[in-house]
Amino acid sequence: MNSVKGLLAASVISIQNSCFIYPACQNCFSRLILDSRRFNCLKCGCTGEAKDASYRYRLSLKIADTNDLFDITVFGSCLDPFFGITAENLQRYIQDFNQLSGETNAESSTRALVQAVETCFIGKRFIFGV
């Protein structure tokens, strides 16, 4: 992992995507390709059963300091304290919610999650390691 080159105090202007969790390769952290039964990592070739895929946070933000705008992406477990749960467990809760509520598409739970993330991050000031 790269070391921090500097610190940037900035405010979050917007959330750049609505997908905050992704299936991640345990070896190289790249996004996994999932089908109904298997996963495959295109970067390192790791494969396995889809039910065993692990998940990771990926939050893309537009931020601003006093002079400039920046697009940044925050990855991994450093987001656990903000979400209050690991990405793995949040993904499990979302799947369980969709099954229990009979949701055939995940649109309503995704919309609720996006609103919650926007409320928690937009307009707030953070110190980012860059």
From TrEMBL:
Gene Ontology biological process: negative regulation of intrinsic apoptotic signaling pathway in response to DNA damage
Domain Replication factor A C-terminal positions: 9-95
Gene3D superfamilies xref list: Nucleic acid-binding proteins
Pfam families xrefs: Rep_fac-A_C
GO cellular component: cytoplasm; nucleus
PANTHER family, A to Z: DNA DAMAGE-INDUCED APOPTOSIS SUPPRESSOR PROTEIN (PTHR35537:SF1), DNA DAMAGE-INDUCIBLE APOPTOSIS SUPPRESSOR PROTEIN DDIAS (PTHR35537)
Name of the protein described by the UniProt record: DDIAS protein
Taxonomic source organism: Menura novaehollandiae
